[in-house]
Write a structure and sequence with these properties.
By secondary structure, the protein is mainly α. Helix content is about 60%, strand content about 5%.
């Protein structure tokens, strides 16, 4: 029994080892920026494990010391204090000796240096430079990681609701809310850090200050495509083998992108996928009951608002402030708004579900008129949602600060208080969700765009 437990422990340690992530990044053409200047007495030297996948020697005391001194991949230290690097080169091959010729130390033109596109959401740090040796993989995995970010959600879900199938969209959002909520709460309970850097190269740093186990990108990247597949099977006519392949490809792309970005260990990814599958097994059979309750129960809106608000209050008690608190409130608000709009739509006969005898649907012929109307609906709807979000943001933050007597001169600091962040996110995105499924379809009817 002890041998078996030791084997599981070794497997967990292996899958959680940041060197596995660094090795994957190397295979995909990601490397840290290294300095090419020779060292002088008292000058700058490379921190431990400056390169991605620098080897096992980069771990232990040297790695920990580098992190606590503020050193980052490819950064330099002077007498144990981090200092700015000189003009750097890409990868290990760029490190030179005092006897190297200038031509031999020039960085390859095909290996541009880049920095993370967004700063750290908690402390505003921009991250360190890294080198990309395979641009195709860089853009492919950048696309993959965006499939789990806010920009994707605020465009994909409305497009599906307005142009494809509101029935599937409502149920998909129910699954998404529960998957993301349980994933974020589990992160704050387990509190495992993200992969250490070095040896990992942080291609993305926006979520770097949050916990990593399980990967909520992997969870949403599993739940959304496979929920779409199961919800459309038998409802729409299409080659189901192709649908399953597309769902699998979507999931794999998102999962690998998180390794590529240096945001998760292999164990984080596997745990996220398995956790998402478990949630789907539990909630997918209950979707009919949940959706029917949202549509028909007299007091459904009151129950929905109270439940989602209570879940948000609970999540804010799990740990100190980070953007995951706001993301959780945002997700819960969106889910509550969509569910309440579904109830109102059912009462007024807006976006009614087609009769069962009309199933299965056949995909319409792709025509210029279909594309133009779909694009116009999407453009008009997104403008309305963005205006709604801007107005609610401008109202709720000062109002919450005034109600709870919190200084509003520094909005970022004020939003670190639960009394401000929770009502701001919940009210703003709850309204956005309600507008997306109720007011925008009414506007489409008025503009003859339905």
């Amino acid at each position: 029994m002890g041998v078996r437990a030791g084997g599981w422990r070794q497997l967990v340690d292996y899958l959680h080892d940041p060197h596995r992530v660094a090795r994957f990044q190397q295979l995909c053409g990601v490397s840290a920026v290294s300095s090419a200047q020779p060292l002088a007495n008292g000058g700058c030297s490379h921190g431990a494990g400056a390169g991605a996948g620098a080897g096992a020697g980069a771990t232990g005391a040297g790695e920990a010391a580098a992190r606590y001194r503020g050193a980052t991949p490819g950064s330099l230290s002077k007498n144990g204090v981090a200092c700015a690097p000189a003009a750097g080169y890409c990868g290990d091959s760029a490190v030179s000796s005092p006897f190297s010729s200038p031509a031999a130390t020039q960085p390859p033109a095909a290996d541009p240096k880049k920095k993370p596109r967004r700063t750290n959401s908690l402390n505003g740090e921009a991250g360190t430079e890294f080198c990309i040796h395979n641009r195709l993989l860089y853009y492919l995995f950048s696309l993959g990681t965006e499939l789990g970010n806010e920009l994707f959600y605020i465009t994909f879900f409305p497009f599906w609701l307005w142009n494809i199938d509101p029935y599937v969209g409502r149920r998909l959002i129910v699954i998404w809310v529960w998957v993301m909520y349980l994933g974020q709460c589990t992160k704050d309970i387990i509190r495992w850090p993200r992969p250490a850097s070095p040896p990992v190269v942080k291609v993305e740093v926006f979520y770097d200050s949050e916990y990593g186990m399980p990967s909520t990108h992997a969870m949403s990247g599993t739940a959304i495509p496979f929920s779409l597949f199961f919800l459309t099977c038998g409802r729409w006519e299409y080659p189901y083998v192709i649908g399953l392949l597309l769902a699998s490809s979507w999931c794999i792309l998102v999962c690998l992108s998180r390794l590529y970005m240096g945001m998760h260990s292999i164990l984080d990814i596997i745990a996220g996928v398995l956790y998402s599958i478990l949630i789907l097994i539990i909630f997918h059979p209950a979707l009919d009951l949940i959706d029917n309750f949202n549509l028909t129960y007299k007091y459904a809106p009151l129950f929905i608002i109270s439940l989602h608000l209570g879940m948000g209050l609970f999540s804010f008690t799990l740990d100190t402030w980070s953007t995951s608190r706001g993301d959780t409130a945002e997700i819960l608000g969106t889910g509550a708004g969509i569910a309440c709009a579904s109830h109102v739509n059912h009462i007024f006969g807006i976006l009614p579900d087609p009769p069962l005898v009309a199933l299965p649907f056949s995909p319409p012929s792709i025509t210029f008129n279909l594309i133009a109307r779909s694009f116009l609906r999407f453009a008009v709807g997104v403008v309305v949602l963005l205006l709604t979000r801007a107005v609610l943001k401008a109202i709720t933050i000062p109002l919450a600060c005034k109600m709870f007597r919190i200084p509003c001169t520094d909005v970022l600091q004020a939003r670190k208080r639960m009394e401000v962040e929770l009502p701001y996110r919940y009210l703003t995105y709850g309204t956005v969700g309600f507008v997306a499924l109720f007011l925008v379809p009414c506007l489409f009817n008025y503009l003859n765009l339905s």
